[in-house]
Structure formats: structure tokens, C-alpha cells
Specification:
Helix content is about 20%, strand content about 35%. By secondary structure, it is an alpha+beta fold. It folds into 4 domains: about 300 residues, Alpha/Beta hydrolase fold, catalytic domain (Rossmann fold), CATH 3.40.50; about 50 residues, no CATH class; about 140 residues, Prolyl oligopeptidase, N-terminal domain (Methylamine Dehydrogenase, Chain H); about 100 residues. α3 crosses α13 and α7 crosses α8. The protein is globular.
Length: about 700
């Protein structure tokens, strides 16, 4: 059978430059290791520094992509028009009350970026704090990082990344004059104010690891900044913030499955950090301050799905922790929020979240819940920045329901709708169906799958399907609304999200069952989801396009090697596909912290064999593959550009089919593609046009 999306002639063929390395008695051969530039860190900050031979190859691949997708340019323009038509251009956030002011993020007609404004809490003239459009005016890429107001509201610390490398530059703005002070702190991570003069910030090192906390005093030279905390374990990353009560600065350091927390009182910012509980293998905890105690969310004492404990401020170590909200298997406690008189938490069970709350001093058994009716939905917590309040803000959405923002009065249990996301071009939820089905995996595990399709779509196997998944780091994929997806669904696609192992949709065990040597469960779950969609008539074999990014790109790459026969196409965005080589390289920014997920193949032969068994790059074989669209970003510090580039180069000379294989590299941005709310639509339009062409739809 001829391919639905045939390859063009004269595809770029990367030169082979064999190299070898031996681990645990096994010699690895790599023909394309040269695509990793020796100066990759320099090129991440300045893509123009990329060596000429590598740049030429990536540009040749981009030209090939342009030629292959040329017949879809009109379709892409229409898709962008549709998606833009669903965005309310003159939009603003619900005001956030904070002290004497209300803060608002606002977009005007045609703006790529927002303006941040504030006005007196009870009404009055507004002040523009930051017009991001003006700041981004001369930049190809601009991403606003932190934006944090000082406790007295006189200063604003804000940071920006201008090339996608995620190296942020921090500035401090006088909120009365609108002018930035003569401070410019380079390579800054998280930030937190202690008072009007004292700012704590995290520095990111040359390997992109946030590992040092400094204290900066306004008016002093950065050279005089005091090192407050330094993380010496290169597996750990450091973040900080000001606690809602305003009483403490919190320093949190940790990796994926292990944490340690320190606090500094804001009324004595020169005090050395106080340790809450020393790090211990496999123990995670986070804290909230409430009155004379800390509330502690933790997996200690074998609380696999987490529990909430409390400890006195004076003696906060684990020896003094007492259960407050006990562990319950299968009920994952995701997050907690402490107000002066309330404790609120979000929990998840069977892939559905819920919000629960209890008044301080009330028996935990009397906790109340906020109820929702749809079969599949997503929630977002938007807790007050103020400590002494009884109102909790949250967002609600489902695949058919645009986001709604509510304020919930915890005492009266009344909810007030504050905003409904408007779809200017129109949206009728009754035109669409959301379903939650369960798909059996290879070992009998039941995998939740969320579906969205149009009521007019025939469920007789004729519909194409876009199947999305992630399945790593415990990240759960919520069943939320996306106006962009409607452009596929309106054209007859079934859109499916597979809540596969590696996430925490069904509790912590769902995540643990896809770590280390169990990682292939993630891939089998995804395959099981596809087979269930075929068996139930939602789609047919050979009519599925799979999609995933970053670690979700690993999923895509592994499934392509395992079951390419199920697929019409695959979209792998900045895919983590050169897993073995990356996890063997402890000089890369993320590698040491990744060993808690995949194992350490440097130290362990078992981990080496496990990863080698599924790493997409190492398992490319001489078989037929479906049409493929692969993306990369030169400035990407998370999945370095050479991973997808090497993978595509190897696939192109190994696979046996005549289907298209394309690599599109963004030469001026990183992991998250283009910046700006409209520019980002171009990436979605390209993916959707590819998916339509891959299943044989008319793209003229």
C-alpha cells in the first residue's frame, strides 16, 4: 500500500563519523555523536555560535520540512485563523487582591504579550507595572520569568529569558516611577522578598543547575551579595519562595523523589537558614506555615499516596511530626494550602481531582468537598496570596468546557463564577462528547483514557485519532479544555489522552510502576490505549497519529519501535530519545537528577541494560515506520537539540518504508517553542496539518 504521506526525494543524509564508548563490557557505537557541538553551552545562549557543519545540516532538514509541508501552507493559515478566532484578544485576568492593591494581567487587541497593571483595592486609577510587549519589542524570543512584588508594594522584581535557553536576567523596578533600578542580576532562578530592602534569589550555574541562594540588599552592588545556601549535590535543584503567611522565606532543595526544606524568618533575614528535616532517601516533603505550626505534605512512614502532618515551629524536625490527615491508599494528596483559619488540599483518585477543606481546629473527619458533575474534568488551584482570608479561588475545565474561574467562600460553601473563558468565534459544548474509558494494558492494568469527539463523528472505526501521552516524573495529564484541539475534532478526529503509568492519575503507585526497569509499562499502556480505541470502533489500525513532547517524546519513540503498524503518523516534540547516551553523561545539566527516575547506568549494569533495552535511538531497526514530524530547539537546555537530530539521522538510513520523516529545528528558541500567544499557534498549526496529511485527509 502506498504511503499516505510519501517522502520527498533527496532527503538530507547526515554524514557518519563513528565513535565508540565502552560501559560494563558493552561497546556502544554512535555514528552521529558529532552533532553534539563541543561549544553547546555557548550555542545555547547564542545560537549563532553553533558550528557551521551542524548548523548547515539542521538548516537542510528545515528546508526539507518546508518542501514536504509546502502544500499545507494554506491549511496552516486557516488553522491559525481558526485558533486565533477562539482567543479573546482584549482579555484580562480576574483581579488578585493583595494588600492595598488589586493586580491584573491584561491583553489588548493584537498583543502577543500581556501588561501587568494594578489599581487601588477599592477602585481608582490603574498603573502599568510591566508592558511585556514593550520589553519584547526587539526580541525574536521573550519569556517573562518571575514577577514578584515586594511586601510593601514599592518594588517589583522581574526576570526574562530572551533566547529560550532559560537563563533569566533579573531586574528590579520602582513601582511608582516605572523605572528599573541600576541592578541587573544574571542567570537567576526563583526569587523572594523578605522586606522592602532584602531580596533572596537563586543563581543558576554554567550547567544550568540552580544551586546557590544569595541575599541582595537594594542599593548595594551585586558583588556584595551574601551566599546564604549552596547545594553541593549535583542531583539536587534549589528553589525558594515567600510563604503565604509572610513569616518565612522557604528554601527547597531536592530531586524528583527526595526533598529538603530550610526556612529564614522574614523579620530577621540575616538569620542562617533553619533546617526542617534532613534529606533522606526516598522521602519527600513540602511545608506550609499556619500560626504556631508547619503543615507538612509528605510520603514519610510509607505514605505512598502522601499524608499531611503537623509540627511546632520551634521543633519542626521529623521526630516531632504528628499525623493530621492520614494516608489513604489510592487517594493521592497533590497539594495543600494554609490560610490563617483554613487548610485546603487537592487530592486525586481514579484520575479525577477534588478540592477539600477544613477549618483550623475542626476534626479532619469533618472536612468538606467541592463537587463537580462531569465524567472527566480538570481543576486548577489559584489560592489567595493573602493569608487572612476565607475565599479560595480555583479554575474548572473539561475537554468540552472552557475554563471557568470561581471564588469559593469556605465558611458559607457558596461559589461565585468570576470568569468564563470566552470563545469569540463561538463554542457550543453540546456539539462535543467527553468520555472516560478504561484500556487494558499488557499486564491487565486498567489505563484511563479521556476522549473528545464531535457529536457528528461516526464511531465505526472510520475516524482518525490523535492519541496523546506523557507518562513520566509523576506528571498527571488533566482532562482540560483546549480551544486549539477543536480544529482537529471539528474535522472528524477523535482526540484521546492516555493517562498512562509514569503519571500519578491513579495514585503514587501508578508512577512507581513505571520507574527504573518498569519503564516499559508506560509504553505498553500507551499501546493498550491505542488497541482499545481500535477495538471499540473509535478509530482503526493505521489511522492513529501519536503525539508527545520531551519525556512524552521518549514515549513516542519507544512506541514507534515497538508497534509502528498501529500508526499513521507520529509527532515527537523536542523528544528525549537518546536516553542511554544522555543518562550516561553526568556533565549534562539534568542528568544526575534523572538517575532517580531511570537508574544510574554509569554505576549499575542493571540500569544500563534496562535503559539500553528501550532507548529509542538505540533501538531503531530496519522496519517500516509511519510518517514522522520531529522538532528540536537549539537553545533547549532540557532536551538538547542533538537528541532529535541524531535520532532522525539514524532513522533515515535504517528504516525500510517510503513515509516522510521530517526534522524541524527552531534555530532561535528552546524547549517551549515560540513565545507569544499568537506566535505559538504556528507550532500547533504545523502539527495539526501534519496529522491531517498523515491520515490521508485533503490538505489543499
Amino acid at each position: 500500500m502506498s504511503p499516505k504521506f510519501p517522502a520527498l526525494p533527496n532527503a538530507p543524509i547526515a554524514r557518519q563519523k563513528p565513535s565508540q564508548a565502552t560501559f560494563h563490557g558493552v561497546t556502544l557505537c554512535d555514528d552521529y555523536g558529532w552533532l553534539r557541538a563541543d561549544n553547546w553551552q555557548e550555542a545555547m545562549r547564542d545560537p549563532d555560535k553553533l558550528p557551521a557543519d551542524i548548523k548547515t545540516y539542521l538548516q537542510e532538514e528545515n528546508a526539507y520540512y518546508d518542501a514536504a509541508m509546502k502544500d499545507t501552507t494554506g491549511l496552516q493559515d486557516r488553522l491559525i485563523g481558526e485558533m486565533r478566532g477562539r482567543i479573546k484578544e482584549d482579555d484580562e485576568s480576574v483581579p488578585v487582591r493583595n494588600g492595598p492593591y488589586s493586580y491584573v494581567m491584561r491583553y489588548s487587541q493584537g498583543d502577543e504579550h500581556p501588561r501587568y497593571v494594578r489599581m487601588p483595592r477599592e477602585g481608582g486609577d490603574e498603573t502599568v507595572l510591566i508592558d511585556v510587549n514593550a520589553e519584547a519589542k526587539d526580541q525574536d524570543y521573550f519569556h517573562l520569568g518571575g514577577i514578584v512584588t515586594s511586601p510593601g508594594h514599592s518594588l517589583l522584581a522581574w526576570s526574562a529569558d530572551t533566547n529560550g535557553s532559560e537563563f533569566y536576567r533579573l531586574r528590579i523596578r520602582d513601582t511608582q516611577t516605572g523605572q528599573d533600578l541600576p541592578h541587573m542580576l544574571e542567570d537567576v532562578g526563583s526569587i523572594a522578598w523578605a522586606n522592602e530592602k532584602t531580596l533572596f534569589y537563586v543563581r543558576v550555574d554554567e550547567n544550568h543547575r540552580p544551586n546557590k541562594v544569595f541575599k541582595h540588599v537594594i542599593g548595594r552592588d551585586q558583588a556584595d551579595d551574601v551566599l546564604v545556601y549552596e547545594e553541593t549535590d549535583n542531583r539536587y535543584y534549589v528553589g525558594l519562595g515567600r510563604m503565604r503567611s509572610g513569616a518565612f522565606i522557604e528554601i527547597e532543595t531536592g530531586m524528583n523523589d527526595e526533598t529538603e526544606v530550610w526556612v529564614i524568618p522574614t523579620d530577621a533575614p540575616d538569620t542562617p537558614p533553619q533546617l526542617i528535616e534532613a534529606r533522606s532517601e526516598g522521602i519527600e516533603y513540602s511545608i506550609e506555615h499556619q500560626d504556631d505550626r508547619f503543615l507538612i505534605l509528605t510520603n514519610a512512614d510509607d505514605a505512598l499516596d502522601f499524608k499531611v502532618m503537623e509540627a511546632p515551629i520551634a521543633t519542626p524536625s521529623r521526630a516531632h511530626w504528628k499525623d493530621l490527615l492520614p494516608h489513604q491508599a489510592g487517594r493521592m494528596i497533590i497539594s495543600i494550602f494554609a490560610y490563617k483559619d483554613w487548610m485546603i488540599w487537592i487530592e486525586r483518585e481514579n484520575a479525577l481531582p477534588r478540592i477539600r477543606f477544613v477549618r483550623k481546629g475542626q476534626d479532619i473527619g469533618g472536612a468538606e468537598s467541592i463537587a463537580f458533575d462531569e465524567e472527566a474534568y480538570g481543576l486548577g488551584a489559584m489560592p489567595s496570596v493573602e493569608y487572612d482570608t476565607g475565599s479560595f479561588r480555583f479554575s474548572y475545565t473539561s475537554p468540552t468546557t472552557p475554563a471557568e474561574i470561581y471564588d469559593y467562600d469556605l465558611a458559607s460553601t457558596k461559589r461565585v463564577l468570576r470568569k468564563t473563558t470566552e470563545i469569540p468565534s463561538g463554542h457550543d459544548p453540546s456539539d462535543y462528547v467527553t468520555r472516560r474509558i478504561m484500556a487494558p494494558s499488557h499486564d491487565g492494568a486498567e489505563v484511563p483514557v479521556t476522549l473528545l469527539y464531535h457529536t457528528s463523528t461516526a464511531l465505526d472505526g472510520s475516524a482518525p485519532c490523535l492519541l496523546y501521552g506523557y507518562g513520566s516524573y509523576g506528571a498527571s495529564m488533566p482532562a482540560t479544555f483546549s480551544s486549539n484541539r477543536l480544529s482537529l475534532v471539528d474535522r472528524g478526529f477523535v482526540y484521546a489522552i492516555a493517562h498512562i503509568r509514569g503519571g500519578e492519575e491513579k495514585g503514587r503507585a501508578w508512577y512507581e510502576e513505571a520507574k527504573f526497569g518498569k519503564k516499559p509499562n508506560t509504553f505498553h499502556d500507551f499501546i493498550g490505549a491505542g488497541e482499545k480505541l481500535i477495538a471499540d470502533g473509535y478509530t482503526a489500525k493505521g489511522n492513529i497519529v501519536i503525539s508527545g513532547g520531551s519525556a512524552g517524546g521518549l514515549l513516542v519513540g519507544a512506541v514507534l519501535n515497538m508497534r509502528p503498524d498501529l500508526l499513521a503518523g507520529a509527532i515527537a516534540d523536542v523528544p528525549f530519545v537518546d536516553v542511554l547516551n544522555t543518562i550516561l553523561d553526568d556533565t549534562l545539566p539534568l542528568t544526575p537528577g534523572e538517575w532517580s527516575q531511570w537508574g544510574n547506568p554509569i554505576a549499575s549494569k542493571e540500569a544500563f541494560d534496562d535503559i539500553r533495552g528501550y532507548s529509542p535511538y538505540d533501538n531503531v531497526s530496519a522496519q517500516d515506520y509511519p510518517a514522522m514530524l520531529v522538532t528540536a530547539g537549539v537553545s533547549d537546555p532540557r532536551v538538547t537539540y542533538w537528541e532529535p537530530a541524531k535520532w532522525v539521522a539514524k532513522l533515515r538510513v535504517t528504516k525500510t518504508d517510503d513515509n516522510i520523516l521530517m526534522l524541524r529545528t527552531n534555530m532561535t528558541s528552546g524547549h517551549f517553542g515560540k513565545s507569544g500567544r499568537f506566535a505559538a499557534l504556528e507550532d500547533a498549526a504545523r502539527s495539526y496539518a501534519f496529522a491531517m496529511k498523515a491520515v490521508g485527509m485533503d490538505v489543499s
